[in-house]
Amino acid sequence: MSVKIIDTFPKFLTWWESAQGKSVDEQIKSWATEYMSSWPELLSLQIGDYEAQSLDWHQIARERIFPNFGARLTEMYKAQQGLREWIEPVYERAQQVLGFRSEAVFIIYVGIGCGAGWTTKYGGLPAILFGLENIAECGWSEFPAIRGLIAHEIGHLAHFYWRERNGRSIGTGPWWQLYEEGFAQVCESLILEMPSWHQAHGDKEWLDWCQSHISWLATTFLETVDNNAPVSPFFASWYTLHGKSQTGYFLGYRAVKVLQEQIGLRRLALIENVETYLRPVLEQIANSG
Question: Residue 272: CB partners within 8 Å, gap ≥ 6?
Fold first, then answer.
């Protein structure tokens, strides 16, 4: 199946050459009107993502994103080169290993912090967006992390592909987030045919910490959802739990891996009422410590 790569980074570099000496507010305005103007749907997706969360994207861009462009330029360039090298071979391997065939669009861009990887639709086709600014911030610019990130996002793409073809909707809420991220994390290792944790490349102690705190993570997740509190500290790169970010990916993997071994990947991809599957597994993990 055809793979299309849209690499906007060269235009970003051209824009940055003239914009770097301007004020942050001027940069934000010209980022939208000059750099992003060639990809209005990409701009709309990013702004819409913040609006859906009732967040002010201008404020986040002003405080967290644009002031760091200069310092992160080298890492963004490394990430762009790695993505260009690895997208097609990893996607080819993923289709063989997971057994699905789908067209896909891969977009490389510098955005406003919507994520290092993001699986969505673009131009009516399944798409994965790679935000170089977030990749650089997370420390994932080198080869092993980039390859893992690509595989992880393709795991999401395969998951959504199977659900769409079988008339299953995409869910929302904390249990769904744990399920879909755990599913993609399982796929990351399956696609690469080896244990892979791209999140660990920004913190060499991350994996050991997650393994040694797994029962605590499960207990804390259960308490969080039962108190109707947000689970963003488990998943968002800008939050931490005991100094560790994105630990929900490890927790999701451990829970989803149990289910995968019980019912298989394809059946797991189509389950409904995910809490009824995941809660007993998390309770078991929580009690294991």
Answer: 168
